[in-house]
Amino acid sequence: MKTKLIKLSKETNSELTEVFLRLQNNPYKNYMSFKNEVSTIISKNIVPKELIEICNTIRTDRESGETYAHLIQNCPIDPVRPVFDHDDPVTDKYQKKTTFVGEGFLELFAQLTDMPLLAYETRNNGDFFHDVYAHSKYHGTQTQKTDSELFYHNDRTAHSVRADYLALLGMRSHEQNRIYTGYIDGRAILKFLNEHHQSILRQPYFFTPFDDYSRDSNKDQVVSQVHPILENYHSFRYYDTRTTYINDAPVEAKEALLALKDAIIKAEKDHIHIKTGDLFVFPNQDGLHNREIIEIAFPEEAKNRWILKTYNFSSTKRLKEFSSYFHENIPGLVKEIVTVK
């Protein structure tokens, strides 16, 4: 169940970087055109054989259950990676970022592994590529825009449409700042939950408030609908300190929630240092992840740490299960109408 380590060769890195530097479409202006342009890289058979084999290995690992988490080192990223304004980093990125190597690699990887991207109309202007980057307003909060630690969770826990996988590409990370992404395979958590507690966690006795950034993006997003915490075999819908039981939940629900907190502490964990050029891909629902800050040697570099991120479905078939949520001409983009003024 451990994260599998893979490393791209220098030759493959250079070859892909050259290809992505020639991309003509801006993914933040027209994602579908960008996606189609990346598709032509596959149709023209110019994808390096090494990357195709790596993606095939990842798909095989998932199908067999050997591991669901992979760390790929030496991935192509943009040669010039600007520092963004911390008061409005998303808008600043639109102005300063003129090449799309990182985005191209994430899109190509998604297509080769059949992991279509997911986006939300009211989150980051509907972008399919997000930044894990410090925003001054969200210091000390539990959002991807914070420079603080994050508790164990799934991304978008409170939302009805949630990613099956997350892909985190290190764009800028100082190696002497020890900031780790913790990951727990859901199967490791189950080892410490008895059958009764698992049964209770599968009942809709729980709810999750939306995070600060989600509420600011869409005032309708306050709390989730009532939901179970445990689904499928080892899928979790949980944000530590946020997900809790409903008012009229039975005592067993409270006991099961405490048992889950204990299980998370006891479960075997991976601690991944996402360095510049690393791609960490792991389940969003079939496990939990966090951010741990162990030591900051260079505070300014920590503030400017930048990870390019995508939400991914596990397959095209899985994406189609949520087709009623999407814009008609943009599969994967969730429609969200704001009614609260």
Describe it.
It is a single chain. This protein is 31% helix and 22% strand. The strands form 4 sheets. Strands 1, 2, 3, 4, 6, 13, 15, 16 and 17 form a 9-stranded mixed sheet that branches. It has a 4-stranded antiparallel sheet with strand order 5-14-7-12. A two-stranded antiparallel ribbon has the order 8-11. The termini are far apart. The radius of gyration is 20 Å and the shape is globular. A hairpin with a 2-residue loop joins strand 16 and strand 17 (330-334). The chain has 341 residues and is of the alpha+beta class.
The total count of helices amounts to 11
| Low-pLDDT sequence parts | none
Radius of gyration: 20 Å
User: Helicity level, as a percent range?
Assistant: 25-40%
Proportion of strand residues = 15-25%
The largest sheet is:
9 strands, mixed
Q: Order of SSEs, N→C?
A: EHHHEHHEEEEEHHEHEEEHEEEHEHEE
Structural class: alpha+beta
* Overall pLDDT confidence: 92
Q: What is the overall silhouette?
A: globular
Number of strands: 17
Intertermini distance: 46 Å
